[in-house]
Amino acid sequence: MTPIISRARTAIVDAAYRSYYRLNDLNHDRRVWAPPKRAAGAWFRSYEPLPRHCRDELLSALCSELAPGEVVYDVGANTGVYTLAAAATRPDVRVVAFEPDPAVVEQLRRNVACNDFEDRVSVRAEGVGEETGTATFHRSSYGELGSFHAGNAAAWTADVRETTTVPVVRLDDVDAPPPDHLKIDVEGFGREAIAGAERTIEDHRPTVYFEPHVVDAGGTDYRVGWLRERFDALGYTAERLAEGWVFRP
Which residues does the UniProt record annotate as the domain Methyltransferase FkbM (predicted)? Predict the structure, then answer.
């Protein structure tokens, strides 16, 4: 592929993504259409125009392992596909969903509401990290790429839309029922999220569903090394799936 064709292709893909995210924002703002979606055998509705991530292997693993009355923590919930699918899979499952992007968390709330899941889903407008406090969050032109690391928010052909200060909580400080299942997809902030959940993981031993991102701000490759070592030391088994890892106690 010549450089000119490659640049043209990149420009077309970028334009398509930006158009999609503008449509997504508009549909959530106006609440025009919440099409039904099917994920891991469960049906729900959301204002996300397309059924993105509904076929994720990590999501299928999570939903297939849910037992009656269990608690799911969805860290980096975005517009809520994992949250909604988990809540739709079992009527007695409770979900605590964490999303730091101020605009995206409102989209998440609207999706929870349009399914009448408010009694079982707690939405928290917070990031999850190593310490409870506040941090600078980089909002991305591709809504799902928002991150505490500027480089992750500007991945692919996206760019940083704005920065804002948001609350951050360590999971060990959360006043909520402990998780039986812990999903983490935080655009390069995974090390910090796990560091703030050490007591939760050691004491309650949830199954962990972790979506890696290639590098954090320090250049650490999340696909190898620290992640396996951390869970190996806790006696967890590891399974590699298309989107990331499942660690089972």
Answer: 74-214
pLDDT per position as a tens digit, 76-109: 999 999 999 999 999 999 999 999 999 999 999 9
User: Which residues are registered as beta bridge partners of 162?
Assistant: 139
Spatial separation of the C-alpha atoms in residues 150 and 215, rounded to whole Å = 12
Both tokens of 97, joined, read 């969903």
- What is the distance between the alpha carbons of residues 92 and 75, in angstroms, rounded to a whole number? 20
DSSP string, 181-210: EEEE--TT-HHHHHHTTHHHHHHH--EEEE
- Helix, strand, coil percentages (3-state) for the chain, rounded to 5, are 35, 25, 40
User: What CATH number did the domain enclosing 37 receive?
Assistant: 3.40.50.150
Q: Which of 45, 36, 32, 77 is nearest to 59 (CA)?
A: 77
